[in-house]
């Protein structure tokens, strides 16, 4: 039994070492990728549910790795956040987005994702507005997506930041709504344009519907309606989900049903 225990702990050590090496490699790779600016935005349409009009796009981060091909945020954002490198990645990413905006290729707005720590760091708002200005991007075409965590830590400061952004025309979307420890009482205090209803609830709509998902989506829509905040359903994958969201009064949708992220904008057309 003793030998067996040692075996197990040795195997465990080995696995730990392999994992640590992998993470270290990824961190070194990430540093190199930052020097090379190996990042690019992909765009996914956000659509008005009632008539399929494309109102904007969400910019989603992609890393073109020299050996491993296209990497998705899930594969490197953890390492990026732990090492603090994600902020540099984000600035490179935002600059690409601003160039697209300046080129005038997109119908409607483009939203960018901001991690909570990045949002709370130093001079985020000034830097963002400065970079947009430098690139010739109209801030009124820009929106930022943040989660609730970004707001709750230092609420007065967060409020000042959102107000400054709004003064310049940058509206705010609250991402992954419903998954956090939603302290609903704060919602009315912040200038928030829209709640993005997390895809985990949206995927419980349509056929094979979950009663709890339906109840939650209903509650979020009622809350948003009361506060005069728009709603965007994330992860819409089927026509049934679209139909149900329409019946429930959700204004906007995003998901594979409407279009996958791609390196080109959806033309300003309608998507049923
Ligand atoms: P998110 O902000 O919640 O973005 C939505 C994710 O859902 C995206 O994954 C998108 O490709 C995926 N998605 C869209 N429609 C559907 C659908 O119908 N079904 C399913 N199953 N998935 C769908 P992605 O691109 O892999 O991004 C993952 C996360 O990485 C994002 O979640 C966001 O939190 C983060 N992220 C993305 N871009 C950036 C960035 O530029 N900076 C930072 N800091 N984080 C980013
Ligand atoms: Ca998002
Ligand atoms: Ca989301
Ligand atoms: Ca998310």
TrEMBL record:
Domain EAL, first and last residues per copy: 23-272
Taxonomic superkingdom: Bacteria
Protein name, per record: EAL domain-containing protein
Organism: Luteimonas deserti
Whole-protein coverage range: 637 to 908 of 908
């Amino acid at each position: 039994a003793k030998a067996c225990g040692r075996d197990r702990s040795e195997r465990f050590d080995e696995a730990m070492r392999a994992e640590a090496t992998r993470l270290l490699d990824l961190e070194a790779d990430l540093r190199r990728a930052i020097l090379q600016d190996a990042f690019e935005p992909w765009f996914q349409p956000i659509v008005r549910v009632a008539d399929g009009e494309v109102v904007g796009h969400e910019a989603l981060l992609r890393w073109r790795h020299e050996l491993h091909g296209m990497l998705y945020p899930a594969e490197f954002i953890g390492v990026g956040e732990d090492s603090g490198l994600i902020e540099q990645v984000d600035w490179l990413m935002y600059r690409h987005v601003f160039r697209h905006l300046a080129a005038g290729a997109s119908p409607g707005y483009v939203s960018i994702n901001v991690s909570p720590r990045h949002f709370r760091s130093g001079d985020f708002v000034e830097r963002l507005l400065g970079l947009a200005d430098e690139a010739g991007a109209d801030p009124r075409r820009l929106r930022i997506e943040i989660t609730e965590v970004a707001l709750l830590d230092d609420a007065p400061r967060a409020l000042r930041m959102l107000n400054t952004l709004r003064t310049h025309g940058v509206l705010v979307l609250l991402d992954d709504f419903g998954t956090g420890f939603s302290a609903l009482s704060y919602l009315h205090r912040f200038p928030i344009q829209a709640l993005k209803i997390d895809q985990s609830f949206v995927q419980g709509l349509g056929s094979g519907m979950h009663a709890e998902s339906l109840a939650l989506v209903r509650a979020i829509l009622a809350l948003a309606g009361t506060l005069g905040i728009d709603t965007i359903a994330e992860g819409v994958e089927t026509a049934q989900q679209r139909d149900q969201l329409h019946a429930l009064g959700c204004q906007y949708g995003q998901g594979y049903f409407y279009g996958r992220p791609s390196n080109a904008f959806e033309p300003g057309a309608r998507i049923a």
